[in-house]
Write a structure and sequence with these properties.
It is built from three helices and seven strands. By secondary structure, the protein is an alpha+beta fold. The protein has a single domain, classed as STM4215-like (2-Layer Sandwich). It is elongated and about 50 Å long.
Length: about 150
Amino acid sequence: MSTIATAQILTDLHAEILSDSGVTALIGTRLRYGKARQKEVMPYVVYQILTKIPTLTHDGDARHAQMPMQFDVWAATHYQATQVADALESKLVGIRTSRGSTSIQFGNLDRAFTAFDDETEFCRFSGDFNFFFGISSGDFLAADWNASDWKTVA
């Protein structure tokens, strides 16, 4: 039985985000996992996995995982950070797509805040997005899903 491959999920999600013209119009390809490059041009986005929660059933691995991620937008101004944050939110909330071997089944914004960093003098938007992933396009949840009734398409 296959398990959720974190590296593949990150690769596929990264490509999916950069496929959005609204996001790339603002950050180009400056979407980084873990940390930004030295002297990165602003605005840019850094994201990381907060945790990975496999979905298990009585039969074992359900081939789905819940994976909360933190996205930090760094920008020279609050307005610029908010523009990028809005584009990210538009792309990621409610996402349901397949890319590579990953089905991205749902995304929601759990919490978000903006702040000014006194040390760097940059503005930061930080948002925690919660995603549900499957490992192949055959693992999409039923089209008529709701949060209390998860079903897998056979």
